[in-house]
Amino acid sequence: MKLKCFLIMSFILVLYSPSVFSYNDTTTHKDITKTSIDKFEEINDYFKSILGFKEGSNEPVNETTITKLIQEGSTNEDHRNRAYNHFYNPLNGEGLDDYPFPLFRLYGGKSSNCGSLYKYTGIPALGWALGSGYRSCGAGYFDEDNYNGYSWIKARESYYNSFFYPELRDYYLISFFEQFGRVLHMLEDMSVPAHVRNDMLGHLTPKGLNYIKDHWDVLKELSIVDFVKHNASNNYENWVEINKKQSDIIAYKDSTEHPLVIPKFATPQQYWDNDVYNSSNPNPEDTLATDSEKGAGLSEYTNANFVSTKTIFSNNNPESEKKRFPYPRTSSMDREYPAFISRIQAEDGKYDNIPLLNKVRDGEIVDKGFIGVKYLAYPLKSEAIHSERVYFFNPAVHSNYADILIPKTIAYTAGLIDYFFRGRMGIVPKFSGYDAESQMFKKVTVAATNDSKWIDDRIEPMPY
User: Fold this and answer.
1) How far is CA 15 from CA 81, 86, 147, 195, 219, in A?
2) Hey, which bits of 360-412 come out as E strands?
3) Which listed residue, of 10, 18, 61, 331, carries a Cα 20 to 30 Å from 73's Cα?
4) Residue 251 region by backbone torsions, left for phi larger than 0, else alpha for psi between -120 and 50, else beta
5) pLDDT by residue (tens digit) across 169-225?
6) Strands of 380-423, DSSP E
Protein backbone atom coordinates (compact mmCIF):
# COMPACT_ATOMS: atom_id res chain seq x y z
CA MET A 1 0.00 0.00 0.00
CA LYS A 2 2.84 2.41 0.88
CA LEU A 3 4.54 1.66 -2.42
CA LYS A 4 1.37 2.38 -4.40
CA CYS A 5 0.77 5.64 -2.52
CA PHE A 6 4.35 6.73 -3.16
CA LEU A 7 4.09 5.90 -6.84
CA ILE A 8 0.83 7.78 -7.27
CA MET A 9 2.12 10.85 -5.43
CA SER A 10 5.39 10.76 -7.36
CA PHE A 11 3.57 10.62 -10.66
CA ILE A 12 1.31 13.54 -9.72
CA LEU A 13 4.20 15.65 -8.45
CA VAL A 14 6.24 15.12 -11.58
CA LEU A 15 3.30 16.07 -13.75
CA TYR A 16 3.42 19.43 -11.96
CA SER A 17 7.06 19.79 -12.93
CA PRO A 18 7.50 21.75 -16.18
CA SER A 19 10.67 19.83 -17.03
CA VAL A 20 8.59 17.11 -18.66
CA PHE A 21 6.88 19.44 -21.12
CA SER A 22 9.46 20.01 -23.86
CA TYR A 23 12.83 19.11 -25.24
CA ASN A 24 15.14 18.55 -22.26
CA ASP A 25 15.90 21.97 -20.79
CA THR A 26 19.48 21.20 -19.76
CA THR A 27 20.77 19.36 -22.82
CA THR A 28 18.65 19.38 -25.99
CA HIS A 29 17.58 23.04 -25.93
CA LYS A 30 21.13 24.09 -25.12
CA ASP A 31 22.58 22.03 -27.99
CA ILE A 32 19.98 23.17 -30.53
CA THR A 33 20.54 26.81 -29.55
CA LYS A 34 24.32 26.59 -29.91
CA THR A 35 24.05 24.77 -33.24
CA SER A 36 21.65 27.44 -34.51
CA ILE A 37 24.05 30.21 -33.47
CA ASP A 38 26.89 28.42 -35.26
CA LYS A 39 24.72 27.93 -38.35
CA PHE A 40 24.19 31.68 -38.65
CA GLU A 41 27.84 32.41 -39.36
CA GLU A 42 27.33 36.16 -39.88
CA ILE A 43 26.58 36.58 -36.17
CA ASN A 44 30.28 36.74 -35.36
CA ASP A 45 30.80 39.57 -37.84
CA TYR A 46 27.87 41.41 -36.28
CA PHE A 47 29.16 41.03 -32.74
CA LYS A 48 32.60 42.22 -33.83
CA SER A 49 31.57 45.18 -35.97
CA ILE A 50 28.44 46.42 -34.17
CA LEU A 51 28.96 45.40 -30.54
CA GLY A 52 32.75 45.60 -30.56
CA PHE A 53 33.30 42.03 -29.33
CA LYS A 54 36.64 41.02 -30.82
CA GLU A 55 36.01 37.29 -30.31
CA GLY A 56 32.47 37.36 -31.68
CA SER A 57 30.03 34.99 -29.97
CA ASN A 58 32.91 33.58 -27.91
CA GLU A 59 33.61 36.95 -26.31
CA PRO A 60 34.05 36.64 -22.51
CA VAL A 61 31.18 38.38 -20.70
CA ASN A 62 30.56 38.12 -16.96
CA GLU A 63 32.99 35.17 -16.66
CA THR A 64 31.28 33.27 -19.48
CA THR A 65 30.67 33.80 -23.22
CA ILE A 66 27.87 35.29 -25.31
CA THR A 67 26.94 31.87 -26.69
CA LYS A 68 26.75 30.35 -23.22
CA LEU A 69 24.62 33.23 -21.93
CA ILE A 70 22.12 32.65 -24.74
CA GLN A 71 22.24 28.90 -24.05
CA GLU A 72 21.52 29.49 -20.37
CA GLY A 73 18.48 31.54 -21.32
CA SER A 74 17.23 28.72 -23.52
CA THR A 75 17.53 26.29 -20.59
CA ASN A 76 15.96 28.60 -17.98
CA GLU A 77 12.67 29.14 -19.83
CA ASP A 78 11.13 25.91 -18.51
CA HIS A 79 11.60 26.88 -14.86
CA ARG A 80 8.60 27.24 -12.55
CA ASN A 81 5.19 27.21 -14.28
CA ARG A 82 6.29 28.95 -17.46
CA ALA A 83 6.19 25.81 -19.61
CA TYR A 84 2.39 25.78 -19.57
CA ASN A 85 2.59 28.77 -21.92
CA HIS A 86 4.72 26.92 -24.48
CA PHE A 87 1.82 25.38 -26.40
CA TYR A 88 0.31 26.83 -29.56
CA ASN A 89 -2.28 25.48 -31.99
CA PRO A 90 -1.83 27.29 -35.34
CA LEU A 91 -5.28 26.22 -36.51
CA ASN A 92 -7.05 28.40 -33.94
CA GLY A 93 -4.29 30.44 -32.29
CA GLU A 94 -5.00 28.97 -28.86
CA GLY A 95 -2.66 27.71 -26.14
CA LEU A 96 -2.76 24.69 -23.86
CA ASP A 97 -6.33 23.60 -23.12
CA ASP A 98 -6.01 19.94 -22.24
CA TYR A 99 -6.88 17.87 -19.18
CA PRO A 100 -5.58 17.97 -16.48
CA PHE A 101 -4.29 21.52 -17.02
CA PRO A 102 -6.96 23.17 -14.78
CA LEU A 103 -5.55 21.16 -11.87
CA PHE A 104 -2.10 22.63 -12.51
CA ARG A 105 -3.56 26.13 -12.65
CA LEU A 106 -5.07 25.61 -9.21
CA TYR A 107 -1.85 24.06 -7.96
CA GLY A 108 0.11 27.04 -9.24
CA GLY A 109 -2.13 29.38 -7.27
CA LYS A 110 -2.79 31.66 -10.20
CA SER A 111 -6.51 31.19 -10.70
CA SER A 112 -7.92 32.57 -7.45
CA ASN A 113 -7.27 36.26 -8.23
CA CYS A 114 -7.32 36.14 -12.02
CA GLY A 115 -9.93 37.39 -14.41
CA SER A 116 -11.33 35.20 -17.15
CA LEU A 117 -8.45 35.74 -19.63
CA TYR A 118 -6.39 32.51 -19.73
CA LYS A 119 -7.65 31.57 -16.28
CA TYR A 120 -7.79 27.85 -16.94
CA THR A 121 -5.72 27.65 -20.12
CA GLY A 122 -2.14 28.38 -21.04
CA ILE A 123 -1.21 31.65 -22.72
CA PRO A 124 -0.63 30.86 -26.42
CA ALA A 125 3.10 30.42 -26.99
CA LEU A 126 3.15 32.98 -29.79
CA GLY A 127 1.80 35.74 -27.54
CA TRP A 128 3.95 34.58 -24.62
CA ALA A 129 7.10 34.69 -26.76
CA LEU A 130 6.44 38.05 -28.43
CA GLY A 131 5.10 39.75 -25.30
CA SER A 132 1.53 40.31 -26.46
CA GLY A 133 -0.05 37.58 -24.32
CA TYR A 134 -0.72 37.94 -20.62
CA ARG A 135 -2.96 36.70 -17.83
CA SER A 136 -5.34 39.34 -16.44
CA CYS A 137 -4.49 39.02 -12.77
CA GLY A 138 -3.97 42.72 -12.18
CA ALA A 139 -0.31 42.09 -11.40
CA GLY A 140 1.00 44.23 -14.23
CA TYR A 141 3.59 44.04 -16.95
CA PHE A 142 6.54 43.01 -14.78
CA ASP A 143 4.94 40.05 -13.00
CA GLU A 144 6.67 37.18 -14.80
CA ASP A 145 4.04 34.66 -13.66
CA ASN A 146 1.36 36.48 -15.61
CA TYR A 147 3.24 38.53 -18.18
CA ASN A 148 6.40 37.34 -19.85
CA GLY A 149 9.33 39.40 -18.63
CA TYR A 150 11.61 37.54 -21.04
CA SER A 151 9.71 38.14 -24.27
CA TRP A 152 10.80 39.45 -27.66
CA ILE A 153 9.70 42.96 -26.64
CA LYS A 154 11.71 42.82 -23.41
CA ALA A 155 14.75 41.52 -25.30
CA ARG A 156 14.49 44.41 -27.75
CA GLU A 157 14.25 46.87 -24.84
CA SER A 158 17.37 45.50 -23.18
CA TYR A 159 19.27 45.51 -26.45
CA TYR A 160 18.24 49.13 -27.12
CA ASN A 161 19.22 50.20 -23.61
CA SER A 162 22.68 48.65 -23.98
CA PHE A 163 23.45 51.30 -26.63
CA PHE A 164 21.90 54.32 -24.93
CA TYR A 165 23.07 53.69 -21.35
CA PRO A 166 26.80 52.97 -21.74
CA GLU A 167 27.39 52.92 -17.99
CA LEU A 168 24.96 49.99 -17.74
CA ARG A 169 25.96 48.34 -21.01
CA ASP A 170 27.09 45.01 -19.54
CA TYR A 171 23.96 44.76 -17.37
CA TYR A 172 21.61 45.29 -20.29
CA LEU A 173 23.56 43.00 -22.61
CA ILE A 174 23.54 40.17 -20.08
CA SER A 175 19.78 40.69 -19.63
CA PHE A 176 19.33 40.70 -23.40
CA PHE A 177 21.20 37.44 -23.98
CA GLU A 178 19.13 35.73 -21.26
CA GLN A 179 15.86 37.05 -22.71
CA PHE A 180 16.81 36.23 -26.27
CA GLY A 181 17.78 32.67 -25.31
CA ARG A 182 14.35 32.18 -23.75
CA VAL A 183 12.66 33.43 -26.92
CA LEU A 184 14.66 30.90 -28.96
CA HIS A 185 13.51 28.16 -26.57
CA MET A 186 9.87 29.03 -27.23
CA LEU A 187 10.39 28.80 -30.97
CA GLU A 188 12.24 25.49 -30.64
CA ASP A 189 9.26 24.02 -28.77
CA MET A 190 7.14 24.50 -31.88
CA SER A 191 8.88 21.48 -33.43
CA VAL A 192 7.52 19.17 -30.70
CA PRO A 193 4.22 17.70 -32.00
CA ALA A 194 2.56 17.66 -28.56
CA HIS A 195 3.25 21.41 -28.19
CA VAL A 196 1.34 22.33 -31.34
CA ARG A 197 -1.47 19.77 -31.02
CA ASN A 198 -2.78 20.60 -27.51
CA ASP A 199 -1.48 17.33 -26.12
CA MET A 200 -0.38 17.64 -22.52
CA LEU A 201 -0.83 14.00 -21.56
CA GLY A 202 1.00 12.95 -24.70
CA HIS A 203 4.26 13.87 -22.98
CA LEU A 204 4.07 10.87 -20.68
CA THR A 205 2.90 7.34 -21.32
CA PRO A 206 3.50 5.28 -18.15
CA LYS A 207 4.81 1.74 -18.45
CA GLY A 208 2.63 0.67 -15.54
CA LEU A 209 2.85 -0.73 -12.02
CA ASN A 210 4.27 -4.10 -13.12
CA TYR A 211 7.29 -2.37 -14.64
CA ILE A 212 7.78 -0.37 -11.42
CA LYS A 213 7.55 -3.46 -9.24
CA ASP A 214 10.06 -5.37 -11.39
CA HIS A 215 12.55 -2.48 -11.35
CA TRP A 216 11.89 -1.09 -7.88
CA ASP A 217 15.44 -1.69 -6.60
CA VAL A 218 16.74 0.74 -9.22
CA LEU A 219 13.82 3.16 -9.38
CA LYS A 220 13.67 3.83 -5.64
CA GLU A 221 17.12 5.43 -5.76
CA LEU A 222 16.14 7.97 -8.43
CA SER A 223 14.94 11.53 -8.05
CA ILE A 224 11.24 12.09 -8.72
CA VAL A 225 11.87 13.53 -12.18
CA ASP A 226 14.21 10.69 -13.21
CA PHE A 227 11.78 8.20 -11.67
CA VAL A 228 8.98 9.25 -14.00
CA LYS A 229 11.30 9.45 -17.00
CA HIS A 230 12.30 5.83 -16.43
CA ASN A 231 8.64 4.91 -16.05
CA ALA A 232 7.67 6.56 -19.33
CA SER A 233 7.72 5.10 -22.81
CA ASN A 234 6.90 6.32 -26.32
CA ASN A 235 8.00 9.79 -25.30
CA TYR A 236 9.57 11.65 -28.21
CA GLU A 237 11.25 14.34 -26.13
CA ASN A 238 12.65 11.82 -23.67
CA TRP A 239 13.95 9.68 -26.54
CA VAL A 240 15.74 12.68 -28.06
CA GLU A 241 17.34 13.52 -24.72
CA ILE A 242 18.68 10.01 -24.25
CA ASN A 243 19.70 9.19 -27.82
CA LYS A 244 20.70 12.50 -29.43
CA LYS A 245 23.94 13.74 -27.96
CA GLN A 246 25.51 17.10 -28.65
CA SER A 247 27.60 15.71 -31.52
CA ASP A 248 24.44 14.27 -33.15
CA ILE A 249 22.63 17.61 -33.01
CA ILE A 250 25.65 19.51 -34.32
CA ALA A 251 25.84 17.06 -37.24
CA TYR A 252 22.30 18.04 -38.29
CA LYS A 253 23.67 21.49 -39.15
CA ASP A 254 25.19 20.03 -42.31
CA SER A 255 22.54 17.38 -42.98
CA THR A 256 22.41 16.16 -46.59
CA GLU A 257 19.31 14.01 -46.16
CA HIS A 258 17.32 16.95 -44.77
CA PRO A 259 19.26 20.09 -45.80
CA LEU A 260 18.66 23.18 -43.73
CA VAL A 261 16.71 25.92 -45.49
CA ILE A 262 16.82 29.01 -43.29
CA PRO A 263 13.52 30.93 -43.63
CA LYS A 264 13.53 34.71 -43.99
CA PHE A 265 10.31 36.35 -42.92
CA ALA A 266 9.27 39.99 -42.69
CA THR A 267 8.03 39.78 -39.07
CA PRO A 268 9.14 37.70 -36.06
CA GLN A 269 5.70 36.12 -35.49
CA GLN A 270 5.88 34.46 -38.91
CA TYR A 271 8.59 32.13 -37.60
CA TRP A 272 5.92 30.70 -35.31
CA ASP A 273 2.85 31.11 -37.55
CA ASN A 274 2.64 32.63 -41.04
CA ASP A 275 -1.08 31.80 -41.38
CA VAL A 276 -0.64 29.60 -44.44
CA TYR A 277 -2.08 26.54 -42.65
CA ASN A 278 -5.27 27.33 -40.75
CA SER A 279 -8.77 26.02 -40.16
CA SER A 280 -10.06 27.60 -43.37
CA ASN A 281 -7.18 26.27 -45.47
CA PRO A 282 -5.77 23.09 -43.93
CA ASN A 283 -3.59 21.98 -46.83
CA PRO A 284 -0.36 20.38 -45.54
CA GLU A 285 1.31 20.82 -48.93
CA ASP A 286 1.38 24.56 -48.21
CA THR A 287 3.65 23.96 -45.22
CA LEU A 288 6.49 22.74 -47.45
CA ALA A 289 7.01 26.00 -49.35
CA THR A 290 10.40 27.61 -48.79
CA ASP A 291 9.41 30.95 -50.37
CA SER A 292 10.11 33.78 -47.94
CA GLU A 293 6.57 35.14 -48.11
CA LYS A 294 4.54 31.93 -48.43
CA GLY A 295 6.51 29.61 -46.17
CA ALA A 296 4.85 28.17 -43.08
CA GLY A 297 5.74 28.97 -39.50
CA LEU A 298 7.34 26.17 -37.50
CA SER A 299 4.16 25.44 -35.53
CA GLU A 300 2.20 25.07 -38.79
CA TYR A 301 4.75 22.72 -40.30
CA THR A 302 4.82 20.45 -37.24
CA ASN A 303 1.06 20.46 -36.69
CA ALA A 304 0.29 19.53 -40.31
CA ASN A 305 2.90 16.82 -40.78
CA PHE A 306 3.37 14.95 -37.49
CA VAL A 307 1.29 13.44 -34.71
CA SER A 308 1.63 13.18 -30.94
CA THR A 309 0.63 10.32 -28.64
CA LYS A 310 -2.96 11.46 -28.07
CA THR A 311 -3.59 12.96 -31.52
CA ILE A 312 -2.83 10.08 -33.87
CA PHE A 313 -5.13 10.32 -36.92
CA SER A 314 -7.64 12.52 -35.12
CA ASN A 315 -9.29 14.02 -38.22
CA ASN A 316 -12.52 12.08 -37.62
CA ASN A 317 -12.96 13.33 -34.06
CA PRO A 318 -16.06 15.51 -33.48
CA GLU A 319 -15.60 19.16 -34.43
CA SER A 320 -16.04 20.12 -30.79
CA GLU A 321 -13.13 17.89 -29.79
CA LYS A 322 -10.08 19.87 -28.68
CA LYS A 323 -7.82 17.24 -30.21
CA ARG A 324 -9.27 17.23 -33.70
CA PHE A 325 -6.63 17.85 -36.37
CA PRO A 326 -7.24 17.44 -40.12
CA TYR A 327 -3.78 16.01 -40.87
CA PRO A 328 -2.00 13.66 -40.88
CA ARG A 329 -4.71 11.05 -41.46
CA THR A 330 -4.79 7.36 -42.33
CA SER A 331 -5.11 8.19 -46.03
CA SER A 332 -1.73 9.93 -45.74
CA MET A 333 -0.13 6.51 -45.26
CA ASP A 334 1.24 4.32 -48.05
CA ARG A 335 -1.21 1.43 -47.67
CA GLU A 336 -3.68 -0.10 -45.31
CA TYR A 337 -1.23 -2.71 -44.08
CA PRO A 338 2.39 -2.10 -43.02
CA ALA A 339 5.17 -2.41 -45.58
CA PHE A 340 8.08 -1.42 -43.34
CA ILE A 341 9.36 -3.55 -40.45
CA SER A 342 11.45 -2.21 -37.58
CA ARG A 343 13.47 -4.61 -35.43
CA ILE A 344 13.49 -3.50 -31.78
CA GLN A 345 15.47 -5.19 -29.03
CA ALA A 346 13.21 -6.03 -26.10
CA GLU A 347 14.16 -6.08 -22.41
CA ASP A 348 14.83 -9.83 -22.58
CA GLY A 349 17.47 -9.22 -25.24
CA LYS A 350 15.41 -10.71 -28.04
CA TYR A 351 14.34 -8.76 -31.10
CA ASP A 352 10.73 -7.97 -31.96
CA ASN A 353 9.56 -7.17 -35.48
CA ILE A 354 7.45 -4.02 -35.31
CA PRO A 355 5.26 -3.17 -38.33
CA LEU A 356 5.42 0.50 -39.30
CA LEU A 357 3.34 2.62 -41.68
CA ASN A 358 4.99 5.18 -43.96
CA LYS A 359 3.63 8.66 -44.67
CA VAL A 360 3.77 9.18 -48.43
CA ARG A 361 1.41 12.09 -49.12
CA ASP A 362 -0.23 15.18 -47.61
CA GLY A 363 2.88 17.20 -46.90
CA GLU A 364 6.20 15.94 -45.55
CA ILE A 365 7.21 12.43 -46.62
CA VAL A 366 8.26 10.12 -43.78
CA ASP A 367 9.22 6.89 -45.50
CA LYS A 368 11.28 5.10 -42.84
CA GLY A 369 8.40 4.58 -40.47
CA PHE A 370 5.83 7.20 -39.47
CA ILE A 371 3.85 5.25 -36.87
CA GLY A 372 3.78 1.73 -35.45
CA VAL A 373 0.71 -0.45 -35.83
CA LYS A 374 -0.54 -3.64 -34.24
CA TYR A 375 -3.79 -5.55 -34.34
CA LEU A 376 -5.80 -6.69 -31.37
CA ALA A 377 -8.22 -9.54 -31.96
CA TYR A 378 -10.90 -10.52 -29.49
CA PRO A 379 -14.21 -12.45 -29.66
CA LEU A 380 -17.54 -10.67 -29.73
CA LYS A 381 -20.78 -11.98 -28.20
CA SER A 382 -21.72 -13.40 -31.59
CA GLU A 383 -18.52 -15.49 -31.43
CA ALA A 384 -17.16 -13.57 -34.40
CA ILE A 385 -13.61 -12.25 -34.18
CA HIS A 386 -13.22 -8.48 -34.14
CA SER A 387 -9.85 -7.02 -35.13
CA GLU A 388 -8.87 -3.58 -33.86
CA ARG A 389 -5.94 -1.60 -35.16
CA VAL A 390 -3.79 0.20 -32.56
CA TYR A 391 -1.21 2.86 -33.45
CA PHE A 392 1.81 3.59 -31.30
CA PHE A 393 5.29 5.13 -31.21
CA ASN A 394 8.53 3.21 -30.92
CA PRO A 395 12.25 4.15 -31.07
CA ALA A 396 12.37 3.84 -34.87
CA VAL A 397 9.52 6.33 -35.22
CA HIS A 398 11.12 8.74 -32.74
CA SER A 399 14.38 8.53 -34.66
CA ASN A 400 12.66 9.32 -37.96
CA TYR A 401 10.83 12.27 -36.42
CA ALA A 402 14.06 13.62 -34.94
CA ASP A 403 15.94 13.32 -38.22
CA ILE A 404 13.39 15.64 -39.83
CA LEU A 405 12.28 17.90 -36.98
CA ILE A 406 15.63 18.75 -35.39
CA PRO A 407 17.18 20.11 -38.63
CA LYS A 408 13.97 22.07 -39.19
CA THR A 409 14.25 23.49 -35.65
CA ILE A 410 17.85 24.55 -36.21
CA ALA A 411 16.91 26.25 -39.50
CA TYR A 412 14.03 28.26 -38.00
CA THR A 413 16.02 29.20 -34.90
CA ALA A 414 18.94 30.34 -37.05
CA GLY A 415 16.44 32.31 -39.14
CA LEU A 416 15.08 34.12 -36.08
CA ILE A 417 18.63 34.91 -34.95
CA ASP A 418 19.34 36.26 -38.43
CA TYR A 419 16.15 38.33 -38.29
CA PHE A 420 17.05 39.94 -34.99
CA PHE A 421 20.63 40.84 -35.90
CA ARG A 422 20.02 41.82 -39.50
CA GLY A 423 19.75 45.50 -38.65
CA ARG A 424 22.30 47.84 -40.18
CA MET A 425 22.31 51.61 -39.74
CA GLY A 426 24.02 54.10 -41.99
CA ILE A 427 24.93 57.74 -41.40
CA VAL A 428 24.32 60.28 -44.20
CA PRO A 429 25.73 63.81 -43.68
CA LYS A 430 23.72 66.78 -44.92
CA PHE A 431 25.44 70.12 -45.51
CA SER A 432 23.71 73.49 -45.78
CA GLY A 433 24.52 77.21 -45.74
CA TYR A 434 27.68 77.18 -47.83
CA ASP A 435 29.82 80.30 -47.31
CA ALA A 436 31.83 81.14 -50.43
CA GLU A 437 34.28 83.37 -48.63
CA SER A 438 35.33 80.79 -46.04
CA GLN A 439 34.53 77.92 -48.39
CA MET A 440 32.79 76.14 -45.53
CA PHE A 441 29.27 75.02 -44.71
CA LYS A 442 27.56 76.80 -41.87
CA LYS A 443 25.47 73.77 -40.85
CA VAL A 444 26.08 70.06 -40.93
CA THR A 445 23.42 67.54 -39.92
CA VAL A 446 23.39 63.77 -40.09
CA ALA A 447 20.54 61.40 -40.84
CA ALA A 448 20.34 57.75 -39.86
CA THR A 449 19.34 55.34 -42.63
CA ASN A 450 18.11 51.78 -42.52
CA ASP A 451 20.65 49.82 -44.56
CA SER A 452 19.24 46.43 -43.61
CA LYS A 453 19.06 44.29 -46.71
CA TRP A 454 16.65 41.43 -46.29
CA ILE A 455 14.68 39.47 -48.84
CA ASP A 456 16.22 39.46 -52.33
CA ASP A 457 18.44 42.43 -51.37
CA ARG A 458 15.40 44.61 -50.79
CA ILE A 459 15.59 47.18 -48.01
CA GLU A 460 12.63 46.71 -45.70
CA PRO A 461 11.58 48.31 -42.43
CA MET A 462 12.19 46.34 -39.28
CA PRO A 463 9.06 46.23 -37.10
CA TYR A 464 9.65 46.49 -33.39
Assistant:
1) 11, 15, 23, 15, 17
2) 366-379, 385-392
3) 10
4) alpha
5) 899 999 999 999 999 999 999 999 999 999 987 765 555 556 566 667 766 676 655
6) 385-392
